Amino acid sequence: MSDAVLETRGLSKAFGALKATDEVSLDLRPGEIHALIGPNGAGKSTLIAQVSGALRPDRGSVRLEGRDVTARSVEARARAGLARTFQISALAMEDSVFENAALGALGASGRPWRFLRPVARDAALRDRAMAALERVGLQDAADTPVSALSHGQRRQLEVAVALTLQPRAFVMDEPMAGLGADGSRRMTGFLDGLRDEAPILLVEHDMDAVFALADRVSVLVSGRVIATGTVAEIRRDPAVQAAYLGDSA
Amino acid sequence: MSLLHVSALTARYGAAPALFDVSLDIGAGEVVALMGRNGMGKTTTVKAICGMLPWEGTIRFDDADLAGWPSHRIARAGIGLVPEGRRPFRDLTVRENLIAAARTGDWTLERVADLFPRLGERSGQRAGSLSGGEQQMLAIGRALMTNPRLLILDEATEGLAPLVRQEIWAAIARLKRDTGLAILVIDKSVRELAQVADRAVILERGKTAWQGGMADLTPDISERLVGV
Amino acid sequence: MSTILLIEQVLNGLQFGVMLFLMAAGLTLIFGVMGLINLAHGSLYMVGAFAAAAVAGVTGSFVLALAAALAAAALAGAVIEIAVIRRLYAAPHLDQVLATFALILIFSEGTRWLFGSFPLYLDIPDALSGPVTLPGGIEYPRYRLALIAIGIAVALGLWWLTARTRLGIRIRAGENDREMIAALGVDISRLYTLVFALGAALAGLAGALVGAIQSVQVGMGEPVLILAFVVIVIGGIGSIKGAFVGALLVGLTDTLGGLFLPALFRLFMAPDAATQTGAALASMAIYILMGLVLVWRPAGLFGTRAA
Amino acid sequence: DGHGGLKVGMITTLSGGGAGLGLDVRDGFLLAVKQAGRDDIEVVVEDDQRKPDIAVQLADKMIQSEKVDVLTGIIWSNLAMAVVPSATAQGKFYLSPNAGPSALAGKGCHPNYFNVAWQNDNLHEAAGGYATSAGYKNSFILAPNYPAGKDALTGYKRMFGGDIAAEIYTDLGQTDYASEIAQIRASGADSVFFFLPGGMGISFLKQYADSGVDIPVVGPAFSFDQGILKAVGEAALGVVNTSQWSKDIDNAANAAFVESFQAEYGRLPSLYASQGFDTANLMISAFDVAHPAEDPDAFREALRKAEFDSVRGDFSFASNQHPIQDIYAREVVQEGDVITNRIVGVALENHGNAYVDDCKM
Amino acid sequence: MIRENVLNAGILLAFAAVPLWALWADEPFTITLATRAAILALAAVGLNIALGIGGLVSLGHAAFFGLGGYAMGILAHHAQTYAPLEIGPLTIAGTKSMPVIWITALVASALVAWVIGKLSLRTTGVYFIMITLAFGQMLYYFAISWSAYGGEDGLSIYVRNGFPGLNTLVPIQFFGLTFAVLLAALVLFAALRSSPFGLALNAARQAPARVAAVGLDPARLKLVAFVISGAVTGLAGALYADLNRFVSPTMFSWQLSGELIVLIVIGGVGRLMGPVVGAALFVALEHWLGGLTEYWLIALGGILLGLVLFARGGVIGLLTGKAGPHV
Ligand SMILES: Nc1ncnc2c1ncn2[C@@H]1O[C@H](COP(=O)(O)OP(=O)(O)OP(=O)(O)O)[C@@H](O)[C@H]1O
Ligand SMILES: Nc1ncnc2c1ncn2[C@@H]1O[C@H](COP(=O)(O)OP(=O)(O)OP(=O)(O)O)[C@@H](O)[C@H]1O
Ligand SMILES: [Mg+2]
Ligand SMILES: [Mg+2]
């Protein structure tokens, strides 16, 4: 299992008496989409927060490409190649679509301490940002302020910013949330192609998407992983059906 | 005789128009699905009805013209809203969330707790620390505490686990069956909408593109206007 | 230093703190509920004091003076809210800062225009004047004891109002999501006017109570305003409990700092220099306290969110 | 503009909290000019808002644009320190109707700078002198922690023969004195000297009266001026304060001043009004001799002679151009409904100031 | 509605034209007023870097203004008294040279800004406003009781400091100098805003979590902005002290910090020319209204209120019809 790009070992985090994540060990292998599903409040977002560095675990570790990054900050992990998207879009709302993408490119370049030359004249930044926008189909909206984007477009931009980082691994918290049926379909198609670039740890409640995309699925219930397996295995698992899927299995 | 009548509704955000010509009707006790792709104006329509946005055209509720009414007056007239994005009062406890909205009527803390036992269990917890599904239940419970005659659910199942979704749909079905509450429901899942709704209204770029009985919603209309 | 002096100073610190609380409570309520940084809060304090002085001057009754202070400040608050603040809820914070700054100018100079540049007379009622002897032989002004009692009563009342009544719950709900509470049938404009008037009335009450032992003059509100801000920030913005604890902390720090710091420096400095250095440090003490609290807890002692 | 007329620039505080003093100085000054009937004297008045930087810029304006010959009006020492040195360095005359910081009396004295009110220490020294003569042996003294406060305590100690029980610096602008009063109570002093100008003094006196501490209090006149006594009320009764002026000083000039001021403005004149009035009269007496721009030396010489009817009675200048004058002890008394001051004696006779020797002029 | 660039150029031209007119009309005080406006604008441009781009509402920027002022006051005082400044074993001669004073002011305020920023940036929102106020007040009270340099009375410098090649005592020359510094600061502001750093800082104001998620440290971005901002305001303080030939603790007062914010809001937050318009308007109003009535502050209050209520985005927002960033 040492070829895992991203790996958690025994991650535990408690809020008071509540164990939000409890000894969670997962891994993300090259080229795969690993879906993390589970009931509301199971601890998925809490896990993502620990993986991305926004939350310190009480116990356990996170490894990225074999290196222990548990003690590193969000920024350091991002620089080490971890890109995340947010469950609720976190974008600079007053800025244009291009500027948000350029921010990602700037982060990837690792050189924000340039005070005098305008971004617009920095070809490297511009190309990288535009390339990412083109891939999600937002190139025509580059000059639109984010506040004027529709919900679906904002989700696309979230992904585009992650793309500019050219990361080693993606962590996505509900990228389909709020997308309509055709939006979800398009996003599903897009993520499908993305896995060759870098593996994706995907938190999602949209079972159509999960079943279509995931190479493996882990099920988190009350902070614990109760099952990991292929889509077929998970759909058959009675414990998962009882805890999560109900009759949508 | 419809409970809510909307016609020729237009609305804008600043200078950008979002609704051009929306009309819809909801009769007493009726469940109507409001459908359409992303960004077609469903939420905007709801906001207009609830007085959260300036609008032009006609909106009548129970024969009263809602033009110029502030949103609290509309709510008191009997429209309960479960907003997009849940919007619980994060620093209040579950119980306080419900009390904040309460007005006298059939719906009480106990009855909401019967509908959503989970809320009863968590009554002392800060709403901000609830999970998404719990927050969604709270938002519905909170709207019911206003004892509305029309309940509006905007994406009430977004971000919820399948099992919880089923719970919410079951609750909606129960509301329909037991209380005769009129419901306007917006959701992504056409399949589930079809099970509870009597009629559907479909928006396309800020206009009502289709309305009719749920049974009349043929797959090609649905494919063309909703993408499913 | 004798124990008696120490106890007396602690009482003084408490009393000062309790008065600060009256100011801070209104400020924190208004900030918490409306997200409004109300620089004009000090002006309402001044309005209360001037109203009290004017009415006491005519009627000679302190009770009527207090009633007038409450009424005038509440009225001024309601007028400000309806005429100005209401139009600014959607505006950026800084616009509110500028608007309330403009209100300070208008109120201060308007008061000077009405009442002249000289301080006004407002005195302690006879029933509360003079010292009482407390157990242990401590002589302490009766009026200051009354202030402590009033402050604590108001604190309890406010806590009950916000935590236990439906009005309080709705006020706090409004802090979280104004649009949503309106969409649930609460008349948010009226609620806000009410909260603003309530906060203003508290400031006016403080102004009148304090005016009886201090100088009733134009500009009296500004130093207190800064202290009240210090208090609510230490306590955690929006929290009544925080305002109370913060006020007591600031009151005690200020009073005891002024007492002990010079004494402390006298241990290892020439008396002259010690007095001055000590006094200098004492005047910085509450700001140092605030700095320390915020470095340690960036959202104040009882703050739940970063405002 | 071809001289002849005299142009006076008055920079004083007319808005905000400290406006009362500036208004009185202005009114006293303008009254004297009016009474002199001189329409060749023009007074330009500007509001410094009690901000030193504004005062400096106004002085620039007076000098550069208005081309005034004489400057006056500043109330506060820190503003005077900001304005006076550069004004006199530019050859203008400055006549101070109030602020008299020690720096301008000693090393920083200047031939073109005259103080018509006092050297800042004067009233404090007088308080010390009075306390000694009243037989006090042990004083508790307090003042705000700023230069004028330190000067005040120094001035008191200079003339006070007894011991100092404790010396306390309060915050500038402090409004609550409970802590200080408690310390006074515990100190065992037989007298209290305080210098707390403006609202600070009002607060202190009210709180002191209510505390039940009955150690006698002495202070400079600032906290006992007519306008302030109205706000303090009975709490001030019996307190002895020192002043170079009082409305009951018995001379013709003063009686006429008090009456005409009341007639003109409908209120009793204050100490500050008397100083503004004297300043103007001194200036006019010198202008009768020479125009400051045409013959500055003669004008200066005439100022030094101080040949005008001061409302305080005898008035002359020490060599550093600060007053030599009697300073009275006054007691706060009730006359009918009005609480006011009554002279109870002379605290210091023909008193100059301690900085004469530092002034090399 | 006017294009912002055209408007900006017009504002600068007008700003430079007023003192030239005053020179021609022999109104030297108007030049002094314009100089005052230019220096206040410079201080506000400094604050605008932190506030307008970074969203850091500092109510303690008077700290830097005062530090710059005292850098000038102390150095010139020692030069004037021929008594070198002794700090421990170090002996530093005072100076009357503006460039040296400027560098001292820049370095001193940058260092202090770094310390204040480091501690204050742990907080956000109103807490940040108040903690910066607290630091400002600490310095204010310190300056008041620092009797070595005049305490409350401040320090007077008899002759304005010198700048190579200029006679700074001539009002128009001193104006020219301050105007040049202001222009340089405006260029810096414009460059910062469109630079990669500005992009990241601007995003750190709106969505700090996003900035961190792309690998940039929002706290460090803000700290650097705060330091640059403090340094520029410090430089303005040194110039202001030179304008008045005087420093006093009022330069540290919270009212001054508030005034700097007010200037920016009047002109337009985050706008290149916001501080310039705000300062010019404020100084002009102060001067003009003050001449009309004793109660001119009421009128000023009314005008400010009118601006807030009817001109979203300040004067520039009003003229260009765009509201500008939300802070
Ligand atoms: N800061 C916190 N303090 C207390 N409890 C918390 C906090 N954050 C999360 N929780 C609790 O931890 C549990 C896990 O929350 P989390 O947000 O990780 O769930 P989730 O699996 O992402 O749910 P959803 O699918 O609804 O987003 C929930 O019960 C939640 O109430
Ligand atoms: N606050 C806003 N400011 C400007 N435009 C907005 C705003 N909110 C929505 N819009 C625009 O108005 C249009 C209608 O949006 P609305 O939210 O009503 O759509 P919707 O049908 O509810 O979509 P979804 O399914 O994504 O919730 C969209 O084009 C959107 O971009
Ligand atoms: Mg989640
Ligand atoms: Mg919607």
Give the N-terminus to C-terminus distance of chain A in angstroms.
29 Å
- Quaternary status of these chains? heteropentamer
- Poorly predicted spans of chain A: none
N- to C-terminal distance of chain D: 32 Å
Compute the number of helices of chain D.
12
As a whole number of angstroms, the C-alpha radius of gyration of chain D is 20 Å
Number of helices of chain A: 9
Residue share in helices of chain A?
25-40%
Give me the secondary-structure category of chain D: alpha/beta
Order of helices and strands of chain A: EEEHEEHEHHHEHEHEEHH
* Helix-strand topology string of chain D: EHEHEHEHEHEHEHEHEHEHHHEEE
What's a concise summary of this model?
Chain D has helices at about 20-35, 50-65, 75-90, 100-105, 120-135, 145-160, 180-185, 200-210, 225-230, 250-265, 270-285, 295-305, and strands at about 5-10, 40-45, 70, 95, 115, 140-145, 165-170, 190-195, 215-220, 240-245, 315, 325-335, 340-350.
Task: Tell me what the structure shows.
Chain B: Residues 4-228 form the ABC transporter domain. Chain B: Pfam families: ABC_tran (PF00005). Chain B: GO terms for molecular function: ATP binding; ATP hydrolysis activity; branched-chain amino acid transmembrane transporter activity. Chain B: Belongs to the ABC transporter superfamily. The complex is a heteropentamer of chains A (249), B (228), C (307), D (361) and E (327). In chain A, 37% of the residues lie in helices and 24% in strands. With 249 residues, chain A is α/β, with parallel strands linked by helices. Chain A folds into two domains: 1-81 and 168-249, 3-Layer(aba) Sandwich (Rossmann fold); 95-166, no CATH class. In chain A, the strands form two sheets. Chain A has a six-stranded mixed beta sheet, with helices on both faces. In chain A, strands 2-1-4-5 form a four-stranded antiparallel beta sheet, covered by helices on one side. In chain A, strand 7 (169-173), helix 6 and strand 8 (200-203) form a beta-alpha-beta unit. In chain A, helix 3 packs across helix 4, helix 3 (97-109) packs parallel to helix 5 and helix 4 (123-136) packs across helix 5. Chain B has a domain at 1-78 and 148-155 and 182-228: P-loop containing nucleotide triphosphate hydrolases (Rossmann fold), CATH 3.40.50. Chain B is built from nine helices and ten strands. Chain B has helices spanning 42-49, 71-77, 94-101, 109-115, 117-121, 132-145, 162-179, 190-196, 219-225, and strands at residues 2-13, 16-27, 31-35, 55-61, 64-65, 79-82, 150-154, 182-186, 199-204, 207-213. In chain B, the strands form two sheets. Chain B has a six-stranded mixed beta sheet, sandwiched between helices. The two termini of chain B are 32 Å apart. In chain C, 74% of the residues lie in helices and 3% in strands. Chain C has helices spanning 3-34, 41-59, 62-83, 93-115, 142-164, 166-176, 178-183, 188-211, 221-235, 240-266, 271-296, and strands at residues 131-134, 138-141. A two-stranded antiparallel sheet of chain C has the order 1-2. In chain C, strand 1 (131-134) and strand 2 form a beta hairpin. In chain C, helix 1 runs antiparallel to helix 8 (188-211). The radius of gyration of chain C is 20 Å and the shape is globular. In chain E, 72% of the residues lie in helices and 3% in strands. In chain E, strands 1-2 form a two-stranded antiparallel ribbon. Chain E has a two-stranded antiparallel sheet with strand order 3-4. The longest helix of chain E is centred in the C-terminal third of the chain and has 27 residues, at 218-244. Chains in contact: A-B, A-E, B-C, C-D, C-E, D-E. The interface between C and E is large, with 48 and 47 residues. The structure holds adenosine-5'-triphosphate (2 copies) and magnesium ion (2 copies).
